[in-house]
Design goal:
The chain is an alpha/beta fold. The protein is built from nine helices and nine strands. It has one domain: Spore Coat Polysaccharide Biosynthesis Protein SpsA, Chain A (Alpha-Beta Complex).
Length: 254
């Protein structure tokens, strides 16, 4: 069900350049329970950010909620509707292209389920003044996982990162991090037309392309929280696919 939104529009006096300086790309599929609260938290940030929702034709009405939010905040929240769910990588690449076309100087990728801390955005923006890519990392000192994660899940996540680093030679510790801030110039140096991966491997491929392009990458420790609402999109088959796809990436990404 579509929630009620304030009738008044967002009329905060924010300079036009600041309004589109930072764009948070939020891919969504069946995030009706989270999207309104997530958008509210992001739009309350200082410095101000804009939000681009990339919805994959969610059957639970997420797209309609996104449109309602866009009407309530016409200058700060935009919606990109895709006809079908073809993968996380496709959704992000579409969002990146739109953000670049709109003139964004800083582009975030971020989950819409509060697993990534909204409060980390300002500090990641500060770090982006000196780095090309800022990674919200679970696996550097200060980074943490939700205590609700089981020991087995923690081991699989840690082991998967260690495996990916060993095979690919990546220096970044959190190879599957889905919370990143890119400078505009960084994304322009990555051949988005060549990105083919989805799910976990999309994040690994982007990390590889960033390092192969010689970009300055820094990891910022975050607390990764288990979602409270909605259903995770990660499945065992996606995780298993990543095991062999990493070998393909090692050969393809130069």
């Amino acid at each position: 069900m579509t929630p009620d939104f304030p009738a008044q529009q967002d009329n905060r006096e924010i300079p036009e350049r600041s309004l589109h300086h930072t764009v948070i790309v939020l891919p969504t599929y069946n995030e009706a329970e989270n999207l309104a609260d997530m958008a509210s938290a992001l739009l309350a940030l200082d410095p101000p950010v804009s939000v681009l929702v990339v919805d994959d034709n969610s059957p639970d009405g997420t797209g309609r909620i996104a449109d309602a939010l866009g009407q309530a905040h016409p200058a700060r929240l935009r919606v990109l509707h895709r006809e079908a769910k073809t993968g996380l990588g496709d959704a992000y690449v579409s969002g990146f292209r739109r953000a670049l076309a709109d003139g964004a100087e800083r582009i975030f990728e971020m989950d819409a389920d509060f697993s990534h801390p909204v409060s980390a955005v300002p500090e990641m923006l500060r770090l982006a003044e000196r780095h090309d890519v800022v990674v919200g990392s679970r696996y550097v000192p200060g980074g943490r996982l939700d205590t609700r994660w089981s020991p087995l899940r923690r081991f699989i996540s840690w082991g998967g990162n260690a495996y990916a680093r060993r095979i690919t030679g990546l220096r970044v510790h959190d190879t599957t991090a889905g919370f990143k801030c890119f400078r505009r110039e960084a994304l322009e140096r990555i051949p988005l037309d060549d990105v083919r991966s989805q799910g976990y491997t999309f994040q690994i491929e982007m990390a590889m392309r960033c390092e192969r392009a010689g970009l300055r990458v820094v990891e910022y420790p975050i607390y990764f929280r288990e979602r409270d609402a909605g259903v995770s999109k990660m499945t065992p088959s996606i995780a298993l696919e990543a095991l062999w796809r990493i070998w393909q990436l090692r050969m393809l990404v130069r």
